[in-house]
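User: Can you recover a sequence for this backbone? Please restate the input before giving your answer.

Assistant: Of course. Working from this structure:
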């Protein structure tokens, strides 16, 4: 069969309905990215698929011969096993056979019946590539850059970052028929995430189902998107970008009720043709292109989710002198950092310690004093800064959001300020909330509003996606990509780096890499 069938599945927690009569089919050779608003039930849906959670109604059907592998979320579940054993436990039946076989051979009164049973176990063990299991597990750990000295350490003795990689290797071990991954790129460095992308794209017939907020990852590996919305789950052909652009297109067309359906269908066909042409780099490209070409107007529906409007504009044009940094040093963080910005530079900083770049940005903005070196800004430059910590703008501040935003706007009419807040998803009574009670995501949206109102032609972002949901991250990405000024930023969101940066600077106490290059090209370099 080699598929997962979801039949009439409904799930309720108390009075809250997460899923209502969901019917889906996941087929071999495809990779499905599960997306949805926070709290929509993405991770819960994966638990239903894996059999960890029973739905209130309906069932999930998987052929009994299909091996399902799930990325373990409990880092302490394998503390009594070595890293190598933990990886091999990804194929539970193989480990059970190995244990039974060893028990039989260890018997002091080994008889003919035991010999027959041992022979059967040996045959099953061989069918599961048992004799290569240890070397295959080692190869996975090597690919994930786990030191060999860790292989035979107990899981309880290794650090959390290594544990995450070991559990990832466990889920991949033995090339399962069905692979279910919940946020697999969390805590992975960029090169390891790239390795995982390539590995998944070469799994052939495996059904892969992923929950991830990493849009760059979803775009690279997914042949389909599962959108959790309206208490339903709908499957769309294409990667995340295709789903987002098509749902936005439908939302725009739906607003204009006077448009003829034929014209709307024509717009969709042109849009799909454009994406079909770009499918050549994607997984299962040929079949996906055919599927895209078959999509009808009614197959694509607008999403219920709302996106803030983020657009950074400025009036003062940038001169030739922008920013020159020479020999900048801050003890305990970095030393002898030098770089000079050219017009239109958008530089992504990479560093294993984010506090290093935070301190660098603070020194550039005059919020921290360096121990040596110089920072020289061009006369035409109007900079704005989104620091990683902006709590001082909100903690204990009893202003309403209308009053808060008025501090940074030349426009003082409440109606206009409310309109501005509405663009950032603070509509109606939301605009009268006190600044002090805002959530992390709401605070970021307010800080982004402040930056937009400042009209800066130079912006520094320090981990701007922290606390944001996928919709706001997508909107921010669009704003950063469209910004015509200069920009410095650090973010763990690879899609932003890939689409917004034209130059990469990597720092490890000192500057170790600085080149005009796209992020994807940087990942291909052997450094």
């Amino acid at each position: 069969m080699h598929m997962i069938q979801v039949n009439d599945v409904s799930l309720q927690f108390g009075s809250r309905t997460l899923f209502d009569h969901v019917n889906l089919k996941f087929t071999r050779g495809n990779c499905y990215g599960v997306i949805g608003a926070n709290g929509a039930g993405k991770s819960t849906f994966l638990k239903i698929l894996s059999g960890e959670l029973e739905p209130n109604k309906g069932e999930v059907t998987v052929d009994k011969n299909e091996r399902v592998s799930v990325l373990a979320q409990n880092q302490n579940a394998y503390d009594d096993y070595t890293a190598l054993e933990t990886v091999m436990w990804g194929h539970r039946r193989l480990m059970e056979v190995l244990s039974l076989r060893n028990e039989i051979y260890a018997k002091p009164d080994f008889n003919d019946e035991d010999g027959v049973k041992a022979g059967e176990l040996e045959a099953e063990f061989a069918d599961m590539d048992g004799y290569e299991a240890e070397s295959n597990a080692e190869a996975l750990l090597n690919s994930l850059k786990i030191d060999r000295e860790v292989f035979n350490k107990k899981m309880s003795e290794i650090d959390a970052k290594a544990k995450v990689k070991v559990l990832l290797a466990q889920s991949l071990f033995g090339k399962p028929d069905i692979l279910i991954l919940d946020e697999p790129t969390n805590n992975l460095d960029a090169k390891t995430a790239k390795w995982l992308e390539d590995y998944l794209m070469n799994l052939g017939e495996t059904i892969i189902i992923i929950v991830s907020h990493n849009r760059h990852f979803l775009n690279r590996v997914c042949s389909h998107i599962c959108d959790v919305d309206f208490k339903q789950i709908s499957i769309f052909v294409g990667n995340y970008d295709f789903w987002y652009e098509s749902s936005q297109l439908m939302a725009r067309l739906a607003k204009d009720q006077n448009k003829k359906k034929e014209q709307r269908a024509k717009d969709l066909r042109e849009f799909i043709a454009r994406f079909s042409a770009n499918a050549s780099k994607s997984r299962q490209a040929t079949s996906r292109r055919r599927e895209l070409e078959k999509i009808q107007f009614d197959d694509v529906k607008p999403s219920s989710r709302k996106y803030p409007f983020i657009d950074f504009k400025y009036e003062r044009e940038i001169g030739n002198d922008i920013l020159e940094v020479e020999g900048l040093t801050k003890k305990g963080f970095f030393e002898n950092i030098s770089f000079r910005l050219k017009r239109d530079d958008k530089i992504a900083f990479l560093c294993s310690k984010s506090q290093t770049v935070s301190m660098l940005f603070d020194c550039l903005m005059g919020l921290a004093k360096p121990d040596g070196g110089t920072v020289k800004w061009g006369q035409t430059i109007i900079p704005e800064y989104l620091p990683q910590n902006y709590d001082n703008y909100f903690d204990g501040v009893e202003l309403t959001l209308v009053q808060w935003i008025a501090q940074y706007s030349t426009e003082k009419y409440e109606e206009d300020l409310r309109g501005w807040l509405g663009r950032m998803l603070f509509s109606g009574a939301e605009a009268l909330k006190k600044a002090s009670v805002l959530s992390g995501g709401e605070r970021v949206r307010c800080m982004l509003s402040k930056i937009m109102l400042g009209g800066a032609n130079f912006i520094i972002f320090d981990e701007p996606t922290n606390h944001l949901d996928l919709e706001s991250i997508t909107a921010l990405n669009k704003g950063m990509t469209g910004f015509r000024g200069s920009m410095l930023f650090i973010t763990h969101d690879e899609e932003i780096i890939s689409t917004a940066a034209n130059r990469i600077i990597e720092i490890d106490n000192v500057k170790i890499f600085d080149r005009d290059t796209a992020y994807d090209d940087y990942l291909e370099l052997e450094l």
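That completes the design. The two ends are 44 Å apart (CA to CA).
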